[in-house]
Every structure is written in structure tokens, then in C-alpha cells.
Amino acid sequence: MWSEQVINMIVKGIGETLYMTLASTFLGYLFGLPMGILLTVTDKDGLKPNAPIYKILDVIANIVRSVPFLILLIMIIPFTRIVAGKSYGSTATIVPLTVAAIPFIARMVESSLKEVDPGVIEAARSMGAGTLRIVFKVMLVEARTSLIVNGTIALGTILGYTAMSGAVGGGGLGDIAVRYGYHRWQTDIMIVTVILLIILFQLFQTIGMAIANRLDKRK
Amino acid sequence: MSEIVVENLSKTFLSKDGTVEALKNVSLQIESGDIYGIIGMSGAGKSTLVRCMNFLEVPSEGRVLINGKSLGDYSEKELRKQRESIGMIFQHFNLLMQKSVLENVCFPLYIQGKKKNAAHARALELLEIVGLSEKQNAYPAQLSGGQKQRVAIARALACDPKILLCDEATSALDPQTTVSILELLKDINRRFRITIVVITHQMSVVREICNRVAILKDGVVADEGLVSDIFTNPKSAVARELILGDSGNDLRIKSSNTPEEIQSGEKIRIVFSENSAFEPVIANLVLTFGEPVNILRADTKNVGGVAKGEMILEFLKGSTQTAEMKQYLLDHGLAVGEVTDYVE
Predict the structure, then answer these.
(1) Considering the domain boundaries, does residue B254 fall inside one?
(2) Do residues B42 and B171 share a domain?
């Protein structure tokens, strides 16, 4: 049962899961962070209220977020093929993972930035700071702790999504759990993969919270 | 030419239940070097008015002129430049909580395009002025309210402003700290010739530092003039109300005029209840013992709906009769308490 082959497969699975999670979280932030900033800035109480831009981003975020990930995964296979060249495997799975992560991350960035004390923003304005400076030197700095906490949550959620992508041949621990645990009734392998997922999740959570606490100067 | 001129200023806000007129046709002139108080109850529009002075709020009607130039004529970029010469401090300090004290003070310097070294050097000078040099590496969360406001003042002074706007700058502070911050503001006004606009709801603040005052009620200037004139002869009802509300609770009690012989004697606090208020107890005390007492403070306070008279008395230094005198007061139905921390 615990042949070298199985162990190698699980080790490879951990690598794929980490690869998918970290790559899609990174790409998710690459697009989600600017989107979240735009949502905050263009909102009616924002620094540069702009109803059309806000509404468009708002609707896009809501549409993508309302499609369950498993369905999104299948629905955008043609798009995945265009971007990644194929629709299966870890690298291809990063495409739907990123698509799902962007609006999710944008919303969390938006909520973090909206927590920033309006008084501090007003003070920056009173000193003659422009919009870009306020975003990068005030809002992102003041919201740092909340952004990192939310980043940890995003990482955990995307880790969960990678497991789902296993159902359609995405690779990683989720894939192993579905193939061996469900299709072949090898419960022990499924349990091992689940335990490994739990450990990964704990690891992300612990590291994320430690960084957030270390960087928080409010206490 | 007045440094700040507010001309027929009106500001209307749109809210869910229609429009709110925060300011109605307000006109003011603030001269260079003034410490100008704007006082009113909450909701009178004073915070809106001060925000119109640096265009954090854009007036619906009317103009604001700084040194003869209308803020409304500036482009967005010019307005930001102009704001650099108008410092502002706030009730809740509004410091960057994730940045050190030094970096907070550097913030406006970076806006001006100063390099890190130059900004640090200037920030240290400013921290010296506000008396917080040793806290440069602390974070705002580690400071007291008064210290936070000092950092905010240093930050507001960083760009050598000509004008300093103070929005309820002492309202979140205790009386002692309020005094020290007001003293700092006074000092800044004198040393750097900075015109200061003070928004407050406390008459005591106006009395302490302002030379001129405008009283705002429901978005209208109800009274305006020299503080001493308004005090002796308040024309409007709201001015009288504010002055009466200022129940003699001086922020700082000066007893430096007290004759030397009764300075630094034992101090007590006595409280008159209703039945003891009719008899001239203090006069009788002095007559009985043939020894003067100094009344440092007298006040009536509403305690749970009952008017209580309160006095702080100081006995003659080295008096041998204090024990008997206290007993005399007790016998006449007064509450007597020790005062140990009554200092100027």
C-alpha cells in the first residue's frame, strides 16, 4: 500500500498544491489589489468618486463571485485553453483559480481599505497629499495588518479551491484524494491527503497571523 | 489685508432626508497673528467652516480668500500646494498609527519632495519644539493623548505654515493636558507668527488663548468680536448661554496674587448643601477666629439636580487653629475635605 510510488505521488501532490495555491494567490493579488483599490477610490465616499467605474467593477466582482468555483472551473475551460494551452494539469488550473481569486481578493482589499480611519485620510489631504500618495502611503500602510490577515484568508480559500480542481484533473492533493479515495475506495490515502491539507492550512494561517501581528504597530 | 477672509459662505449638504444647510451666509475676517476662536454647540457648523478654510469642504456659495487669493480659483494641484501652507490639527489627532513619531512628522515633508535625511533633520527640530525629542522612535499607540496632539502639531508645523487650523484640538484631552497644549499653541503663535484658528465648544479654551471670537449658531455667526468684549457684553442669547455654561471652571487657577502670608497654607474643599447656604459661614469663621482665609475658588454645581456650593479655602500658613476652624465648619453643617493636589 505505502509503496515508494504512492509516497512519491503524495510528495508531488504537495508540491503541485503549493504551486497552484501560491501562484494563483500571487496572480490574484496582481489583479485583485488594483481592483480593490479602484473599488475603494471610486466609491461614492472615496477619494475620487466615479459611479460608472465603481458600478462596472462591482457588477463584475459580484458575477464572478456568485458562480460556484466548480462550475466556473468547467465553464471557462475554453478560456483556460487559450491562456494555458491545455485545460488539465496544475499550470492550467491556475487560470480558473486566478479568475475566481481576483474578485474575492478585490473585495477583501476593499473592505480592508475602507477600515482605514477617514480622519487620517483627511489629515493627509489637509497636508496637500494627492490621491496616489494617500492610497500608497496612507491607506495601504494603515490597512497593512488587515490586508495581511485577509491575505491569509485568501490563501486558505484558494487552497480549498485547488482541492476542488482535483475533480477535473487539476493535480495536487485534491486530485489524489478524489482519484484514490473516491474512485478507488482507498480511504487511507484520502485521509492522508486530507491531513496534509489541514497541515498546510494551519501553516499558512500561523505564518500569516504571525507576520500580521509583528507588523502591527498599534499595540 | 486680512489673512483669511470668509465671504458670504454657505454650505449645503445633501442627505437622505433632504438638504442640510450647515453654514448660511457666513462672513469673517481673520488678521495675521490672530488666535481666532470659532465657538458653538455641536452641529453649529464650526467644523464645516474650518474645513472650508482649506477647501477640504468646498463651499456651496461664497468665497474663501487666503492673503487675498480665492481658494476657489485654484486648480486641484495649486490647491494642494496652498494646503501645504495651512497646517491642521484634529480632535482625534489623526496620526498614522503604523508609522513612528518621526515618520509621522516627516510625512508632509515627503509631500514637499524633501529627501529622507533632510526630512529627518527637520522633523527632529520640530519634535524638539513640541518637547518630544525622546519619543521619535515610538509609535502613536504608545503615547498619551497630549503627546499625540504634540506630534500632530509638529506635523502641522513641518512645512512652515502661515496658518494653523485647530479642529476641537483639545476636546479629547483632560484639563491639565488641555492647558499644556493651549500653552504650546500660544507659544507657536508668538514665536513663529502663525495665525491660529481654534474651533471649540469650550468657552474656557477661547478665554484662555483667543483674542477674537466668532460664535456660531445653526450655521450663522451670532456674535463676533474681541473676546474681552464678548465676555463683558455678550449681545446674542447663544453667547450668554456659552458664557454661563462656562461655570468658572478655569483651566488654570491663578493664585499668584494671593498675599504671601497666606500662600502655601493648608487647603480644604468645603461643600454647602441647601440648608447651610443661608448663613454667612465664612465671614463668621473669620470673625470668630480672627484669622483670614483665602478663597481660591467658589462655584456652584448641579449635583443630581441639587445646587451645591463648592469652595476651595486656604488657611494661613503656619496657623495653629486649622483643626478648630475645620471643626467649626463641620459644626455648621458643611462638608469638609482635604485638598492636596490643588496646584497652579
Answers:
(1) no
(2) yes
**How close is the nearest chain B Cα to the Cα of A155, in Å?**
24
B237/B322 same-domain check: no
Averaged pLDDT, A172-194: 87
Residue A1: helix, strand or coil by DSSP? coil
Question: What's the whole-number average pLDDT of chain B?
Answer: 85
What is the per-residue pLDDT across B189-203, written as a single tens digit (0 to 9) for each?
999 999 999 999 988
Q: How many domains does chain B have?
A: 2
Q: What is the mean pLDDT of residues A9-32?
A: 95
Short-list A162, A145, A170, CA closest to A196: A162
SS3 B253: coil
Any idea which of A74-83, B126-135, B139-148, B328-337 has the lowest mean pLDDT? B328-337
Q: Name which of A125, A126, A141 is nearest B98 (Cβ-Cβ).
A: A141
Interface contact flag, B141 A219, Cβ < 8 Å? yes
Boundary residue ending a domain (B245, B278, B298): B245
Is B128 domain-assigned? Answer: yes
Tell whether B137 is within 8 A of chain A (Cβ). Answer: no
Got the DSSP string for B8-67?
Answer: EEEEEEEETTEEEEEEEEEEEEE-TT-EEEEE--TTSSHHHHHHHTTTSS--SEEEEEET
pTM above 0.90, yes or no: no
Residue B177 and residue B266 share a domain:
no
Query: How high is the ipTM of this complex?
Result: 0.87
- Give the CATH number of the domain where residue B34 resides: 3.40.50.300
A25-66 per-position pLDDT tens digit: 999 999 999 999 999 999 999 999 999 999 999 999 999 999
Bridge partners, residue B215, by sequence: B39, B223
Q: What is the mean pLDDT of residues A121-141?
A: 95
DSSP state of B133: G
Burial B87-116 (b: 16+ CB within 10 A, else e): bbbbbbbbbbbbbbbbbbbbbbbbbbebee
B108 vs A128: CB contact, 8 Å cut-off? yes
- Domain holding B205, by residue range, is 4-245
Domain with residue A115: its CATH number is 1.10.3720.10
